[in-house]
Every structure is written in structure tokens, then in C-alpha cells.
Amino acid sequence: MNAPGLVLGEGVVLPDDVELGAHVVIHAGVELGPGCVIEDGAVVGKPPKVGAASRSPRDAAGPTRLGPGAVVSAGAVVLAGTALGARTVVAVNAFVREQTVLGEDCLVGTGAVVGRGVRAGDRLRLQTNAILVSGSVVEDDVFIGPGVNSMNDNSAGRLRPELRGITLRRGCRIGGGVDLLPGVEVGEDALVAAGSVVTKDIPAYAVAMGVPARVAGEVPEAERLGS
């Protein structure tokens, strides 16, 4: 294993078949499954730093776990307390915050951001520069297009309300550049057209579009995942 500039936290055990790039930082408390790949300049298990006004928890984030075959690509940062499922890929310059759980075979695209405490199932596709806001819940087989923004604070930081992440049900698809407002739910197998602004819940199997997004039809049977 040739890993120039490697910084390895206390107690971290490297599997025999792990692949490490140059200048990788692996903090204490990281558990690596067999066949993991951590590319040049990636940081895994970094403890979070929060500002004085932040409402994020200040207790220890816990261990960081990468499942078998997980990949953290060049320049990506995965904070402490995160669990990546088997074969999940965090792409170049992506950022995954603390205490997040991503299932198996997920993709966090280039420059994408996953907020604190997100819970996602298997086969999530979070495309380039998309933001999955803290506290969100995502079921299996969800597609989130490039440049999607999700939000969890209706007051834009002014009134400090309870933060409300979004909920994306199984198999739904969110087109590029969509804005998802705090607390909205997109139903199973629903499709939100590119550029829409989702201000209220979208029912299962609906096609929604516009600003604000309104139901304009149904997803054809042939495009639904089924049971």
C-alpha cells in the first residue's frame, strides 16, 4: 500500500485490501470495511465544528463506518458518526455531514452536500451540486437531479423555528434545479419536473411542475417501480 502523506488516527485498522490515495486523513473512530477506496486528499471521520449560534448537537458524533467497497473520492469530506453502506460512492469534492446514514449502492455526486442526520435507503442518486438538507428522510431508489436545493428553515435563519427536513418516498424522482421547501414530502414514484419549486406535499405517482409546483398528471405505469 503506497499512501504518501497518510494521516491515520489512533486505533484505526486498515483492511489488507484498502486502497488509499495521497494525503488522505482518516480520523480516530473510523471503521473501514474490506475493499474500501479513499482517494487523494479525502478526509474521513472528521469531528464536526459548530458555531456558537448553531443548534447542532455538541456531543461526540460517534464512530464512522464505511461498508465493504465504499468509496470516498478525491477531496471529499465525510464527518464523524456517518455510516456509508456497501459500495456507496461519495464523489469528488462532496461533503457528508455528521450522523448521516446512507444505504447500499448510493451515489453522492460531485460537489453535492448531505446534511446532518440524514437517513437514506439504498440506491440513492444525488447528482452534481445537489443539497440534501439536514434532517431529511429518503427511501430506496430515489433520484435527485443536479443542482437541487432543499431547505429546512422557513424563516431563513431569522426566527429559529424547529427545523424540518424533507421526506422523499420510494422511487420518487426530482428533476434538476428543483427547490424543495422545508417539511415537504414527495410521494412514492412521483416525478417533479426540472426547475419547479415544491411548496407543499406531492402525492404518490403524481407528475408535478411549475412555480409553485402543481400536479399536472400521473407517472405512467411502465415507469413505476412496482411492489
How many beta-strand elements? 29
* Count of helical stretches: 0
Q: What's the overall average pLDDT, rounded?
A: 93
Radius of gyration: 18 Å
Order of helices and strands: EEEEEEEEEEEEEEEEEEEEEEEEEEEEE
- Order of adjacent strands in the largest pleated sheet: 2-5-8-11-14-17-20-23-26-28-29
- Structural class of the helices, strands and pairings? mainly beta
User: What general outline do the C-alpha atoms trace?
Assistant: globular
Report the portion of residues in β strands.
25-35%
Low-confidence parts lasting 5 or more residues at pLDDT below 50? none
Share of helical residues:
under 10%
Termini separation: 45 Å
Largest sheet: 11 strands, mixed
How would you sum up this structure, described in words?
- The chain has an 11-stranded mixed sheet with strand order 2-5-8-11-14-17-20-23-26-28-29, with no helix packed on it. Strands 4-7-10-13-16-19-22-25 form an 8-stranded parallel sheet, with no helix packed on it.
- It is mostly beta strands and 227 residues long.
- The protein is 0% helix and 30% strand.
- It has strands at residues 7-8, 19-20, 25-26, 30-32, 37-38, 43-46, 64-66, 71-72, 77-79, 83-84, 89-90, 95-96, 101-102, 107-108, 113-114, 119-120, 125-126, 131-132, 137-138, 143-144, 149-150, 167-168, 173-174, 179-180, 185-186, 191-192, 197-198, 206-209, 214-218.
- The N and C termini lie far apart (45 Å).
